[in-house]
Each structure stands twice: as C-alpha cells, then as structure tokens.
Amino acid sequence: MDYSFFIEIILVLIPLYLANSSAMLLGGKTPIDLNQHFVDKKPFLGKGKTVKGTLFGISIGILAVLLIDFYFQGKVPIINNYLHYGILVSIGAILGDLIGSFLKRRMNIERGKPVLLLDQLDFVIVGILFGSLVHKVSVELFLLVCVITLIAHRIANFVAFKFKLKKVPW
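User: That's the sequence. What structure does it adopt?
Assistant: Structure tokens below.
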C-alpha cells in the first residue's frame, strides 16, 4: 500500500493546525488592530486577535516545520522544499484566521459567536492557498483536509472548553 497520500496529509496539517491552535492558546494582551475601527465604525478585527497570538502562531508553525525538515535532513518526503512550504502555510493559516475575524466583524457577529464553515476553514483555505506557491495539493487532499478539520475543530473546541481554555464549546 502506498502511504504517500497519508504522509502528505500529515505534512499539510502540521503547520496549519499548530499555527492556528497555538495562536489561540498562547495569545493575549495587545490586539493586533490596536483597537482601531474600520471605515464602518466597527472593530477592524477585535480584541481576540493579538500581536502575541499572531507571532506565536506563526512561530510555532515554523518551528514544527524546521524540526521536521531537520529530522529529514532537508529531504522531506512528498513535499519538496518543505521548509518554504511550511513557512507559507503557517503565515497563511494565521492570515486566514485574521480574514475570518475581519469578515465576522463586518457581519456584526460578536467575538466568540460561531459562523459555520468560516470559523473552521478560514485558516485551512488561506494556509493551503499560500502553500500552493511552493506545493500544490490535489483537490482530493484539500477536501479531505477540510473534512478532517471540520471534525477536529469540533472536538478540539469542546476539549478546550472543558479545560477552560475557551469560554464557549464551539
């Protein structure tokens, strides 16, 4: 059996998930928008998106990619130039989350309120889009990552809520 498809999924998920989750877990303090408002007089992003979370998210995603690249001595299977790919995916994942927050503020959706698919897939779509500058994933892999993410997002948020890391279970 050829495991390359499953290895590729894992290599795609690692920077996406670590960047996105560590931004939430390690964030706080100064909002990245510095409490500024957009032309519509609504918060640009809101208090939930912080400088610390953004920097930690990108850094943890890149650190994971550096470790994987080091382990494979620069020859990560399936994804050529995994280091560049992972950096782009980590940045894209955080940017996707910021875009999602920006859109929610425009739609008058309060911080912490769920929006089906936007909350779960914003970081995946933009992360994979950024990563595609170096490595193109198949449509099948993209769709599978989306399905995995929808399930994992639900479980991770429930666990984070139970451990009092989040105020809401979604």
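The chain is about 65% helix and 0% strand.
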